[in-house]
Amino acid sequence: MILSLLGFSYLAFGLLALAMFSHYRDTFGKAPSPTQAKVLYIAGWLAVAGTYWGCIANLGAAYGSILFFGLLSFAGLLVILMLSYRAKFLPYSMALSTVFSSILVGFN
After folding, report:
1. What per-residue confidence (pLDDT) applies to 106?
2. I want to staple 4 with a disulfide (CB 3.0 to 4.6 A). Which of 25, 34, 83, 101 is the partner?
3. 103, burial (CB in 10 Å: exposed 0-12, middle 13-18, buried 19+)
C-alpha cells in the first residue's frame, strides 16, 4: 500500500515539475504550450489529491495525513534528484512508477 502511494506521489510531483517551463525544456528540449502546461498542472494536483485520499482511506485522517506528508517529502526528493541528474529519463520513470503502483494496488 505504501509503495503504491509513493509511486503515485512521485507521478504527482513529476507532473507538477513538468508543468514548469524550465523542467519541461530540460526534459523534452522544447517549451511547453500553455495548454500543455495547464493540463500537466491540473493533472499533478489531481494526483496529489488522489494520493491524499488514498492515505486517508487506508489509515484514517490522522495517520493518513502524516503518511501523506512523508510520502510527498520523499517523492519530491526523488523528482528533484531525477531532474538534477537525468532529466531526460523523468517521463520514463514516471510511467514506470505508475505501472508498478497500479500493479501493487491490484494485489491489495
Report:
1. 86
2. 101
3. exposed
